[in-house]
Amino acid sequence: RAHRRAMSPAGLGLRAALLCLLAWAGLPAADRLYIHPFHMLVYSKSSCEQLEKPSGEAPPDPTFTPVPIQAKTSPVDEEALREQLVLAAQKLQGEDKMRVATVGMLLNFMGFRMYKTLTETQAAAGGAVFSPTALFGTLTSFYLGAQDPTAGRLQAFLGVPGEDQSCTSRLDGHKVLSALQTIQGLLVLQGGAGGQARLLLSTVLGLFTAPGLRLKQPFVGGLAPFAPVTLPRSLDLSTDPQLAAEKINRFMQAVTGWKMGSPLQEVSPDSNLIFNAQVHFQGQMKGFSLLAGPREFWVDNATSVAVPMLSGTGTFPHWSDPQRNLSLTRVPLSANVGLLLVQPHDAAALPEVETLTFQHDLLTWTKNLAPRAMRLTMPQLALRGSYDLQDLLAQAKLATLLGAEASLGRISDGHLRVGQVLNSVLFELKAEKGEQPTEPAPQPTGPEALEVTLDRPFLFAIQDQDSTALHFLGRVANPLSMA
């Protein structure tokens, strides 16, 4: 506990900032204007003066043509990406804490909303893995490249109301992406400290353009806090849309080494820009070991699959609610990051429990957790999920937001036609000691020890307690299948 208390002054400051935000959220609308928390994310007066200079005084943005997709590209160094994120989190101080707390709150709201949309578009029996941070970063990236009216619509969708049409109520996309980088840094910051296993989080972005399309350098450079590896590449998107998709999938796998399956089936033949963000998370569960031999996981009452299972013994925060028909357990992955596991008491009730969990209830429920001695057994996870944001926007009745008429003049002077906007996730959770099978750990002593076995479909989330951001949300329906 002493380590937790001394761990992070930044974390304490963030919690104070979050209390301010929650107080703001509870105020009557008329009072909110005076202490509006979003002022940390909008343009300052000095920035506005610079932006509002007559266009004749400002030189045009430099542009470049992306190199062909077959150009030699170095593989991604995930360790270097982790170090960059750690550095961003270590610099956290002053008003940045409020900024991080605000972005954490916004991305949680957005994450819950779009997770619901995602699960409505996918088969209920399948799995799901979703990154609210990747989604928020993707939308902010497009905001960075947008002009009005698209910029105003994206700002509203991100959850920041424009109080009026003035510059100082406009979202500063650079501030948002910088806060997002710090939030990602807080996820990996404590891993490796105090005997904890290290966490990895890497984001790689491919910007695929039709030949001849020029991109603006300030836009591409501005994406670095969200995706430090951003790879603009050109290829023929129109002649053979399936071949173009295969080339993009092969390119991304060659650069990252991540086995994502084939997230892209076919590109839109009339598009000239494909946005492809891929995220890799790897966590190790301290004190957990891989059980000898595969164990049964029941996909439904009649079907089971044999999967590798992890088991660990200890005292974990736990809460069981018969009224809501669920149990919640928090497994620490580092000093400030927890794996939240939600298990329906009745497997058939998973859809109802999922609806309850991935609203705003999950964050409230964590306050009910109390320490409980238990032996926890769960599947080793290697989940893959991919979706096209254009599909989610269409489902949310926002199909035109990034459509043919979108004003994206800060990305390119050419007429942009945005095709697929992909977010793909590879989510891995392993035993601390790797994959050497070991015998089950001994049962905790005492009559209170609880046996918790996740051998039926369940829900999970990864939360950083310092920013309260939910980095991943998901449903494990079959540990062996792709989401």
Structural notes for this entry:
The protein has 483 residues and is an alpha+beta fold. The chain folds into two domains: 37-49 and 64-282 and 383-428, Antithrombin, subunit I, domain 2 (Antithrombin, Chain I, domain 2), CATH 3.30.497.10; 284-382 and 438-476, Alpha-1-antitrypsin, domain 1 (Roll), CATH 2.30.39. 33% of the residues lie in helices and 26% in strands. A hairpin with a 5-residue loop joins β9 (295-298) and β10. α6 (96-121) packs across α7 (132-144), α6 (96-121) packs across α9 and α6 (96-121) runs antiparallel to α12 (350-365). The longest helix has 26 residues, at 96-121. Residues 1-7 and 22-35 have low confidence and may be disordered. It is found in: Secreted.
Radius of gyration: 23 Å
CATH class of the largest domain: Alpha Beta
CATH superfamily of the largest domain: Antithrombin, subunit I, domain 2
Number of strands: 19
The name CATH uses for the topology of the largest domain is Antithrombin, Chain I, domain 2
What is the number of helical segments per DSSP (H or I, 4+ residues)?
Answer: 13
Indicate the structural class: alpha+beta
In quaternary terms, these chains amount to single chain
Approximately what portion of the residues adopt beta-strand conformation?
25-35%
* Mean model confidence by pLDDT: 85
Helix-residue proportion = 25-40%
End-to-end Cα distance, whole Å, is 37 Å
Shape: globular
The CATH level-2 architecture of the largest domain is identified as 2-Layer Sandwich
Low-confidence stretches: 1-7, 22-35
